[in-house]
């Protein structure tokens, strides 16, 4: 007899100790490249020559703030030239782009990092070579004076998410052996790039290069660059997106000096190296990578660090120019309110109006990043169908919005306004950065509304259709039992006998009428006002207005499964369940009719739920 295999089990300890695939890959890189002995530790600055060549650490920071660490990621080393992109961004934000760009170029030089050469305008080629970096420090000194270095140190600390110290021994060693940089400094002074005390500016630069970091710090700093200037660990907006995008541009063309062309061709991630042995790589909207290994190649780049970056880029196909985002995936659902109305239960007159004009409200649910191409695709899909009166864009699944996407979206809103189409945005709060970005280009538009919950947006749009087509929504008009949908088909005598059992209850705004988990002891028929039905976790199931029953599941269940609260002042007929059961015995035909109506009510709800599910799973 063939035996069944034993059930699959995993020991809790084994599951808890399992590693994410990316961490396993970084571990494999560390194991593979650790035996590498090529290159030499920088010794032109004597203190740097004391670094342990065996040190090797890899760290990767994601944009949600998770940091992977492998090897010697907590070993401090000096930042050296990796400070350059951060100080360039700081200069742009401190002095303004016009001032910085007037004296520092952005073209690659093709020369080593310490070349004593300027461009045709007698300005530094770019801020990544020593001449450009010293010019940046000079600009900070020009505006901050003796506080310049502290201004730089604090800024780099915000990028790293912690206070950073200085290696005084390395600083002294750099200052004592920095004649080449002094030559560059006086060349800049001769050409009026530096207008301040050259010696003081160079001391700022030497100290800046001697700031102590770890591989983890550099990964977080790189991720901050990749995250448009927002530190993913602390959440602080460290620098403006403008400064960050310009910094990444120069890193792309010049960050790796005379190896920059080869780097961007083969690896394709904006990066910067330092002679202390560090390399940082910032892949926009993806990650920040850092490595530390002191042995350098002939270009001044860490030998092991280059291999780590090459391996990561190649293995996961991370070249920044090899993107495969498809704009067609930005719409998760596109429908009118006939397919997915709000949870508000409507009276017959309102239902008829909405059924006749269902295509006048269109809902487009968006997902992912709203980029330039994605918003263009959405606008063309919108134009491909008849013009609605109201359009709802649901943004609750939108994870990011580019400035280009926000501007194109705002321009679409203006076009819709010209055609008298009302725009309702849901899933976005007015305090969010994305809303503020859209608001930059929608000032003066009066056709935009905002409801955070999609159901509330649909309900408001439905109300507009009811008003526009002659309907009336009177929450305070009292209804009789004869108007209740659950009691449809009862005779006048049956209704009279039922009314004799009812008590009229009054509720204030926000008052809880039914509590989930409580005994189901009575039925309610809403007489005036509005109430909403909510699950214990806060999910709103339905909004009910006069003429609608609630608590009707008492006919099937002994306990309440949801809360019911008054949206406004409301009145309701309450009938105790024991009295209703007595009524059913006296009027069996009426009791059967009510149960049929309840079955139809539940069937309608199931059909609506399935329709909503179909919208999200279609295509």
Q: What are the key terms here?
A:
619 residues; alpha+beta; Beta-lactamase; Transcription Regulator spoIIAA; Jelly Rolls; 3 domains; five-stranded antiparallel β-sheet; five-stranded mixed β-sheet; 23 strands; 18% strand
Portion in beta strands: 15-25%
Number of helices: 21
Secondary structure class reads alpha+beta
Shape: elongated
Overall mean pLDDT score?
89
Biggest β-sheet description: 5 strands, antiparallel
State the helical fraction.
40-55%
What is the domain total for the residues? 3
Spans of at least 5 consecutive residues with low confidence: none
Would you kindly provide a brief summary of this structure?
Pfam families: cNMP_binding, Glutaminase, STAS. The chain has 619 residues and is of the alpha+beta class. It contains 21 helices and 23 strands.
What does it look like?
A five-stranded antiparallel sheet has the order 3-2-8-7-6. It has a five-stranded mixed sheet with strand order 10-12-13-14-15, sandwiched between helices. α7 (168-176) crosses α9 (198-209), α15 packs parallel to α16 (403-418) and α20 (577-586) crosses α21. β14 (422-426), α17 (433-439) and β15 form a beta-alpha-beta unit. Helices cover 40% and strands 18% of the residues. It has 21 helices and 23 strands. By secondary structure, the chain is an alpha+beta fold. The mean pLDDT is 89. The protein is elongated and about 105 Å long. It has three domains: 21-316, 3-Layer(aba) Sandwich (Beta-lactamase), CATH 3.40.710; 327-469, Transcription Regulator spoIIAA; 481-618, Jelly Rolls, CATH 2.60.120.10. Homotetramer. Residues 486-604 form the Cyclic nucleotide-binding domain. InterPro entries: Beta-lactam/transpept-like, cNMP-bd_dom, cNMP-bd_dom_sf, Glutaminase, RmlC-like_jellyroll, STAS_dom, STAS_dom_sf.
């Amino acid at each position: 007899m063939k035996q069944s295999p034993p059930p699959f089990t995993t020991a809790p300890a084994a599951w808890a100790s399992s590693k994410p695939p990316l961490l396993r890959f970084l571990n494999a890189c560390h194991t593979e490249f650790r035996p590498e002995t090529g290159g030499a530790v920088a010794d032109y600055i004597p203190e740097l020559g004391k670094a342990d060549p065996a040190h090797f650490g890899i760290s990767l920071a994601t944009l949600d703030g998770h940091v992977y660490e492998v090897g010697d990621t907590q070993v401090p080393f000096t930042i050296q030239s990796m400070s350059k992109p951060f100080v360039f961004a700081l200069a742009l934000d401190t002095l303004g782009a016009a001032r910085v760009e007037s004296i520092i170029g952005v073209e690659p030089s093709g020369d080593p990092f310490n070349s004593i050469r300027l461009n045709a305008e007698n300005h530094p080629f770019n801020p990544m070579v020593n001449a450009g970096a010293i010019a940046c420090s000079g600009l900070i000194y020009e505006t901050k004076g003796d506080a310049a270095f502290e201004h730089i140190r604090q800024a780099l600390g915000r990028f790293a998410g912690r206070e950073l110290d200085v290696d005084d021994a390395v600083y002294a060693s750099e200052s004592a052996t920095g004649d080449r940089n002094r030559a560059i400094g006086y060349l800049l002074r001769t050409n009026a790039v530096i207008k301040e005390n050259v010696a003081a500016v160079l001391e700022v630069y030497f100290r800046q290069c001697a700031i102590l970091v770890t591989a983890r710090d550099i990964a977080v700093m790189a991720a901050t660059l990749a995250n448009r200037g927002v530190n993913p660990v602390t959440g602080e907006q460290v620098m403006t997106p403008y400064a960050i995008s310009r910094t990444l541009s120069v890193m792309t063309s010049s960050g790796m000096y005379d190896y920059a062309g080869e780097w961007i061709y083969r690896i394709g991630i904006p990066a910067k190296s330092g002679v202390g042995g560090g390399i940082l790589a910032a892949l926009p909207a993806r990650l920040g990578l850092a490595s530390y290994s002191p042995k350098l190649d002939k270009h001044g780049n860490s030998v092991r660090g280059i291999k780590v970056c090459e391996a990561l880029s190649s293995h996961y196909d991370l070249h920044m120019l090899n993107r495969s985002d498809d704009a067609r995936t930005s719409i998760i659902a596109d429908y009118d309110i006939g397919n997915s109305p709000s949870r508000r239960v409507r009276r017959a007159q309102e239902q008829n109006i909405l059924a006749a004009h269902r295509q006048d409200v269109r809902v487009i649910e968006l997902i992912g990043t709203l980029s330039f191409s994605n918003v263009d695709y959405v606008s063309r899909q919108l134009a491909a169908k008849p013009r609605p009166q109201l359009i709802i864009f649901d943004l609750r699944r939108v994870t990011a919005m580019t400035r280009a996407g926000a501007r194109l979206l705002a321009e679409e809103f203006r076009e819709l306004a010209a055609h008298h189409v009302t725009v309702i945005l849901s899933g976005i709060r007015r305090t969010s950065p994305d809303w503020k970005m859209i608001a930059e280009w929608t000032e003066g538009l009066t056709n935009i509304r905002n409801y955070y919950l999609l159901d509330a947006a649909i309900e408001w749009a439905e109300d507009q259709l009811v008003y526009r087509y002659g309907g009336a929504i009177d929450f305070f008009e009292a209804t009789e039992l004869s108007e209740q949908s659950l009691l449809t088909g009862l005779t006048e005598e049956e209704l009279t006998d039922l009314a004799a059992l009812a008590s009229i209850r009054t509720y204030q705004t926000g008052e809880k009428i039914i509590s989930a988990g409580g005994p189901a002891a009575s039925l309610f028929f809403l007489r005036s006002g509005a109430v909403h039905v909510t699950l214990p976790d806060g999910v709103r199931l339905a909004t009910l207005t006069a003429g609608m029953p609630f608590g009707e599941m008492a006919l099937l269940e002994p306990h309440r499964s949801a809360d019911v609260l008054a949206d406004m002042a409301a009145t309701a007929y309450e009938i105790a369940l024991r009295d209703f059961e007595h009524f059913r015995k006296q009027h069996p035909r009426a009791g059967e009719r009510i149960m049929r109506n309840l079955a139809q009510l539940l069937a309608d709800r199931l059909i609506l739920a399935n329709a909503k599910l179909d919208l999200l799973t279609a295509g």
